[in-house]
Amino acid sequence: MRYAMAIDTRKCVGCADCVVACQTENNVPIGYCRDWIVENTTGTYPQLQLEIRSERCNHCANSPCVRCCPTGASHYEDGGIVLVEAGDCIGCGACIASCPYDARYPHPDGYVDKCTFCIHRVRDGQKPACVAVCPTHCLYFGDLDDPESEVSVILKKRKYKTLIPEAGTDPQLYFLT
Amino acid sequence: MKTNRRDFIKISSMGVSSTALIAPMFNWKSGSIETAENPGGSYSRTPTYCEICFWKCAGWAYTNEKGEIWKLEGNQDDPHCKGRLCPRGTGGVGMYYDSDRLKTPLIRKTIAGKQTYVEATWEEALDTVAENLQKVKEKHGAECTALFTHGSGGKFFGDLLNAFGSSNITAPSFAQCRGPRETAFLATFGEIIASPERTDIRDTRCLVLIGSHLGENMHNGQVQEMSEAIDKGATIITVDPRFSTAASKSKYWLPIKPATDLALLLAWAHVIINESWFDREYVERYTYGFEQLKDHVQQYSPEWAYGITTIKPDIIRETAREMAKASPAVIIHPGRHVTWYGDDTQRLRAVAILNALLGSWGRRGGFYYPDRVNLPSYPHPEFPEPKRTWRDAHPGKYNLALEVVSNDICDSTIPAPDRACNFKAWIVNGTNLIYTLPDKKKTLEAIQNLEFMVVIDTMPMEITGYADVVLPECTYLERYDSCRTDQHREASVALRMPAAEPKYNSKPAWWMVKQLAAKMGLEEYFKWNDIEELLSWQLQQAGTSLEEMKRIGVKKFPRAFDDMYFRQGEDVPFNTNTGKIELYSTELAAEGFDPMPVYTAHEEPAPGFYRLNYGRSPAHTFSRTANNPNLTDLMDENVLWVNPKVAREWQLKNGQPVWLENQDGVISEFPIKVRITERIRWDSVYMVHGFGHASKQLSRAYGKGTSDSDLITRVHVDPVMGGTGMRGNFVTFRIEEPEGKEVVA
Prior knowledge:
The complex is a heterodimer. Chain A is α+β, with helices and mostly antiparallel strands.
């Protein structure tokens, strides 16, 4: 089992519904977030392109954050989901420094927090909150080992890229272009 | 010095902590924003429909075992949202948890020569409202009262006003927003667009957006369907001086010179007619005035339009053909906020005409015929016939307005010798008129001339500071309302019921109205004891029940007939004078207006000035959400989009705060940060509407960004339907904080 997410940049409008749904679902304190929007404009008026991406933890298969965690709080769950066990975390921030995607933040309660792919929902047979809420249906989630999963199906059909592949972390967020 | 009868009062009993003002992003630390604990396992859910915008998506409010509201999710059966709320709907919990909410009724009193608000019981506050409305009725007549509303509570206050003897019930959503398109489409097709829009975006093959920024305005169903259309490979053509999100999704982006859209629309009509791209059979069968139209558009060639719009003739031709190739599955979108330049009905007529030429009205992928449930009113005696209506204030004006013109009520509140009665009392529910109506000075002058104003709101919006009585309404998550029965492909009913007890000393509108009716001797019009009895009765008439609705939230009613689109060769009667789709409008002609749209040039900015364009952010609805903690977390201020060429000329830097001064010398109350971006033309600047709040009681919104409304002092009123054209204002930059600036407050 290998959980992954595909994000269709052709459909994403950058509304940040994914951000709000994540915050309310996971009780992320106001002022913090586990997912975010990036808008990248290139060109000069009127020859312009705009890429909008909904970003979060890449749940890398080769995660620097897991490798550098001194307590083992950062670890892999079934399906490759990278999690932080809050009770084991000492808030040292080594993982924050190691993440090429800046996907982690220090929770005010004293531990490091990040996207969990909504593992509590996924185990319950639901989609992550961001995927379930997205008004443009631009987020696809599922098991890459299952050829029928919506993420496998869309990755077969479309061209995609990953972010900062040169970091060698084997990220599991696929951006459809 | 003239003292105001009605000084602006800061609602100081709200107890705003100073830390909240300094660091609003970290409010959670001071504990001023409560949030529900993640309930983990056990929770319950209650049905609701959203009040954050007019799309009214149905959803579920989840509460934990302590009864705290945890989160909101869409209802899978709802045709408006298909189980997915937009960011504002998802963030609706913030409206409930906002610690700046109005908490108790307030009455304006003068103590030691100073006007102040005194906290009151509901009994005292409602007595004051009833007494003052009766006073106005005895002195001037009931018809001198008006209701401004933009929210579900307005239904109840509207019934109260009708029972009282006035039909002057107005919503700014007509004359400040979608009015021109409704008048234009009624004149053309004999039907209005209404809400949610009957655009069949799901199945369209070509979607044309004229300044409409879907994706930035999160009209949920339309955004979802645009995304579906992208998946299906539909062509999107966006006409906008700004590289909007929608423009970035488009095959064609036409970066038009602002205020020249009508020239482009007429040139498209020219190409479609002259190159025979129109749907000949449809036009012959259904339309009236084709020959007149053909003659009329000869003057509007693409070459002519090029010099006006800056859009090249070959692009105008190419996009016209692209639309025609998709016909009839093509939508020249009528937009929503279309009160721009004062000739808006005529521009929307051109939109309607293009749709008629391409045969998209009544066709799959064009405009469908919607269905809806009609819930009967609870039996009551007939409302009294008002002696006068708002139309009597200006006889002969705005005859084609389909709803009460809000700005005309405002105008008619300022005394004039030629009017027998001016408006003397306003009831304002859920609309912050200080920023909703353009020309703030005039709005304030009108308010000074009132004998009484009661404001019903959830938040201490600016308008509340001018009220004689402020009534705190509970949020939509704490109350019942009338059921939602809006149109869609399939008729549906949606229930809103309380997910939690009202916080503080707030109450629902239906309760206020029921109490007021008793105090004003109007009980016979409200024979139900409470809203559950009213809803039970109504839902039974529709073949369901309150119990069932509490369980399912949304009930759909399949269409009785297969009549969403015209059948091949079907004869369709249209509700116009000629019974046809009127390319040549006999109704406009009869009223003395151009029967076919005529291009007129609009004023252009003077050197050093830029056209002030404004729009929406997906995170906010007008100023209504400006203080919502969840949504300010996404966006807590607006910024000013400036083209790099302009920034160079003015030596502006990214993030630099500037003040704006408009053509009338009005300077923005607060500075706005510059965003230098290639996404905006050099002849205009752009900001998101709804920011720059002057009410300190909105601790997260106060002084954040700039209010476009403050700078919209020049209003081009549409002579056809009274709409307020607001995009004829120009601003220049003030780098230093201006001294002695005129602040209208």
